Fold:
Amino acid sequence: MNTRHPSTAAENSRHHFRFHLPHHHLTAVFGNDWFALKAEAFARFFGTPVFLVGQTLVVAVWIILNVIGVVHFDIYPFILLNLAFSLQAAYAAPLILLAQTRQADRDKAHADADAQHREAIALASQERELTAAEQTARLIELLHQNTTLTELIKELSQRIETLTGDLHCQLIKAAT
Structure:
């Protein structure tokens, strides 16, 4: 019987994620150095509403300033703006694809760890079922032994009662 009881919540948490530990190296998508962390943060930022609203505002201000003539660095066909979008797409697409690929690797590793965890739970459950079956069989055996002993005690009690009655009768006959 397993008598392991985690003493703290932290120990219980470590025990819960024990199957994930072999895959812990996959947590940082681009690695753990400064550039990798910034690249991951940048790739994650691309799909946020803040980025989309911010980019829309920058493009709107860019177009308005150039159309009304406040500045003249990028007139109507907005070639510089197109170049900026192309440059952004050239960097964003690989970063996003890399993040998706590494996230898929992490998801697969976590799914494998979860499958191992479920398998361990299933094995532990089977062991508990076997232990329960063995204990049930032992209990049934003890109940049969108890029944046999109870019947034997009853039989012996009846014999004692009969012998006591016979002895009592003989004492009465001897006394008379």
User: Anything to note?
Assistant: The radius of gyration is 41 Å. The chain has a mean pLDDT of 84.
